[in-house]
Amino acid sequence: MVHSGYYKKAKYHISYQWRIFLTIFVIIYPMLVSVHSFLPFFFGVAGYIFMTGIRAQNIPLIIISGFYLLNLEINLSMPLFGSIIAVLLFYLFVFPKIKGWIHNKSFIPVVSVIFIYLTYYVVLFIDDLIFLTSNHNINFTWILFFSFVIDILLMVFYDYNEK
Fold first, then answer.
1. Which of 2, 41, 89, 101 is 20 to 30 A off residue 77, Cα-Cα?
2. From its phi and psi, is residue 132 left (phi > 0), alpha (psi between -120 and 50) or beta?
3. Mind listing the pLDDT tens digit of every residue in the chain (163 residues)?
4. Which of 63, 100, 98 lies closest to 84 in space, CA to CA?
5. How far, in Å, are 31, 49, 72, 116, 150 from residue 58 at the CA level?
6. How far apart are CA 128 and CA 100, in angstroms?
7. What is the spatial distance between Cα 49 and Cα 90, in angstroms, rounded to a whole number?
8. For residue 28, how many C-alpha atoms fall within 13 Å in the half-sphere facing its CB?
9. Max Cα distance, the chain (Å)
């Protein structure tokens, strides 16, 4: 059974300086990712921050992470709103079950990032089936694996700092 304190509304406050830094990062970094393919995408981290913003009802967090996901999709020529749809599908259908399965609270962000990636790949596959295209070839490359590992490590570091 999950501790009852876990279901309380989380409170996350972002200072004005961090909002400016995050806004500049959200605007500039996806352009750098589209030019330099060796940079990690931070897709899973942005998705988890988006979910955290929804859970905490923190509008600036939702706007910043949602804009990052949209900007990343535009710069990488992926389907528009695919990542937000994937994160919302995960948050609505899978995340409540994960909270019930996993009793270790520190493991939830890592598992969430893994499932956000899987949900996004399913959304891309469904997009290809609906529109009968094969534009989104999902090859398991080292760059994608590198981005995935960096996201997982960032979530472990994020959880380590929360304690």
1. 89
2. left
3. 444 444 455 555 667 888 788 889 999 999 898 888 788 889 899 999 999 899 988 888 899 899 999 998 888 878 888 899 999 999 999 998 887 787 777 788 889 999 998 998 888 888 888 887 776 555 555 677 788 899 999 888 876 555 5
4. 63
5. 26, 10, 21, 20, 25
6. 33
7. 13
8. 6
9. 47
Number of domains in the chain: 1
**Domain limits for position 107:** 4-162
- Give the pLDDT confidence score for residue 114 in this predicted structure: 92
CB 111 within 8 A of CB 117: no
Judging by beta carbons within 10 Å of its beta carbon (0-12, 13-18, 19+), is residue 141 exposed, middle or buried? exposed
pTM of this prediction exceeds 0.90: no
Residue 39 is classified by DSSP as S
Return the DSSP state at 13: -
Helical (H) or strand (E) element with 22: helix 16-35
Token pair, residue 76, equals: 């990488």
